[in-house]
Amino acid sequence: MTALPRFRLAHLSLYRRLTVLLLCPLALVAALILGQSWFASRAAADRAFDRLLDAASLSIAEQVRWQQSRLWMDLPPSALEMLATDAEERVFYALYDAQGRFVTGNRTLPELPPRPAAR
User: Cα(55)–Cα(58) distance, rounded to whole angstroms?
Assistant: First the structure.
């Protein structure tokens, strides 16, 4: 039975051996740094977008009022502009009252999930 040939660098010059031995760990470290920076940038972008959504939802919530014994919402264009970051993006919304009845917005959006029972 013959042994498998081992990968040897002995036939290479000292310069090439050092280059191979130093570039392999360097490539691994570079890949790790690249992956970590990608995940960190995604997290930062998600946090920024979450804050934008929070500000838009607060702006919309401030416009919800009771008028003539009905829930009324005057949706400000600025709230839609905050949500639509691109001119071609479309924003969908739906407003439900405390009993889960549809008030205004896009009726085809999924309904709210049922609330957990009060303890």
Answer: 5
- Are 95 and 104 spatial neighbours (Cβ–Cβ below 8 Å)? yes
Answer yes or no: is 7 within a domain.
Answer: no
Summarised one tens digit per residue, pLDDT across range 60-118 is: 788 888 888 777 777 777 776 777 666 666 777 777 777 777 877 788 887 667 777 76
**In the chain, what are the helix, strand and coil shares in percent, each to the nearest 5?**
45, 15, 40
Q: Is 111 part of a structural domain of the chain?
A: no
CB contact set of 89 (below 8 Å; sequence gap of 6+): 83
Task: Confirm whether 29 is domain-assigned.
Answer: yes
Which domain covers residue 42, as residue numbers?
14-105
How many domains does one find in the chain? 1
CA 73/CA 80 separation, integer angstroms: 13
Residue 43 lies in a domain: yes
Could you tell me the pTM of the whole model? 0.55
